[in-house]
């Protein structure tokens, strides 16, 4: 098979200090509708370090930090596409067709907790954004052409949720970026600013690694891992997100549903209905699948033993963990530790 060629070029700064400015006039030339009634001239509304990746296969990524210089409320019609939107730090108000986009939150220790979504929207979907002077946002937006995604459609293990994404069905799926993904994005900020040797290669590599994690985490478990935002209210989405974070804070060997119910100040019946509505499975299945997904990531990206990972996932007997893992992913956990096992369908996905 002929090797695919890709290229990527960081967006050069428009100023020597590395700050790229954004004016109201520039927004209008891009088809943006300004809603705040502000001056329509060359007023600078934002500035920041901005980088970009462009690949011949159609995949692109825009990333960086943008600081708001003045208040701005805008709306723009989106083209039909699949995108991954990652927000590391900061806050603005944003929505797609009225669906709020989750923003980062601060933990009790003061650290920013990133947020991200995988979104599929039709032609003409409306993105609305409202930002106030002094607000900022560290973010990355990755665009994924459906023709590129269809390269994986023919495999027998293609999850149903991923097929729905390829087919163009609208939906919004939450994804929680790992510390590794956050590091890769921050590294791209630095690469775009310094432009070291092999910058293009590093930007491409990081972008593809982030895509792989986002799609694997979101759709790697099959259709039951998918929850279209249209099925949930904003309150239900927040409660589901709180449930996931509550599970994340406890290893499987220490998890007790009673503790979760108490921490979330809700009832087991309410959580059961929420999980059934969002993921079409029971609360117990949701928790078990979450720990198995985490175990899969640990097997791929850590050197911990399989028995330690199994225990953290709530399994005291390795045989039970192996059986559950095989049912979920179609192969035993040991397969991820064999040489070459992580390359998967590399001849098909080598871009």
UniProtKB/TrEMBL annotation:
Keyword flag Transcription regulation: yes
Biological source species: Pleomorphomonas carboxyditropha
Name of this chain's protein: HTH araC/xylS-type domain-containing protein
Stored PANTHER family: REGULATORY PROTEIN PCHR
Annotated spans, Disordered: 331-351
Residue ranges occupied by any HTH araC/xylS-type domain in the UniProt entry: 238-339
Keyword annotations of the record: DNA-binding, Transcription, Transcription regulation
UniProt-recorded Gene Ontology molecular function terms: DNA-binding transcription factor activity; sequence-specific DNA binding
Source organism superkingdom: Bacteria
């Amino acid at each position: 098979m002929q090797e695919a060629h890709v290229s990527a070029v960081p967006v050069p700064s428009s100023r020597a200090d590395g700050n790229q400015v954004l004016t109201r006039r520039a927004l209008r030339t891009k088809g943006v509708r300004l809603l705040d009634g502000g001056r329509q001239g060359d007023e600078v509304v934002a500035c920041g370090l901005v980088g970009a990746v462009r690949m011949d296969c159609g995949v692109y990524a825009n990333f960086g930090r943008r600081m708001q210089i003045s208040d701005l409320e805008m709306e723009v019609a989106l083209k039909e596409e699949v995108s991954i939107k990652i927000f590391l730090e900061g806050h603005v108000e944003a929505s797609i067709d009225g669906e709020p986009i989750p923003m980062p939150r601060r933990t009790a220790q003061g650290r920013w907790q990133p947020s991200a979504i995988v979104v599929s929207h039709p032609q003409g979907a409306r993105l609305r954004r409202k930002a106030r002077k002094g607000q900022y946002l560290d973010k990355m937006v990755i665009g994924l052409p459906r023709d590129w995604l269809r390269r994986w459609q023919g495999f027998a293990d293609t999850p149903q949720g991923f097929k729905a994404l390829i087919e163009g069905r609208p939906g919004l799926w939450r994804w929680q970026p790992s510390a590794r993904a956050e590091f890769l994005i921050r590294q791209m900020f630095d690469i775009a600013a310094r432009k070291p040797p092999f910058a293009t290669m590093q930007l491409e590599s990081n972008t593809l690694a982030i895509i792989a994690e986002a799609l694997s985490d979101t759709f790697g478990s099959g259709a039951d891992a998918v929850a279209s935002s249209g099925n949930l209210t904003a309150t239900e989405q927040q409660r589901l997100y709180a449930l996931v974070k509550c599970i994340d804070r406890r290893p499987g060997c220490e998890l007790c549903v009673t503790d979760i119910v108490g921490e979330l100040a809700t009832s087991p019946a309410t959580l059961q209905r929420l999980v059934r509505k969002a993921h079409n499975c029971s609360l117990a299945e949701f928790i078990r699948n979450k720990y198995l997904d985490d175990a899969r990531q640990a097997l791929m990206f850590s050197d911990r033993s399989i028995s330690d990972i199994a225990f953290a996932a709530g399994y005291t007997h390795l045989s039970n963990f192996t059986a559950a893992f095989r049912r979920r992913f179609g192969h035993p956990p040991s397969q991820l530790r064999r040489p070459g096992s992580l390359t998967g369908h590399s001849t098909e996905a080598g871009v």
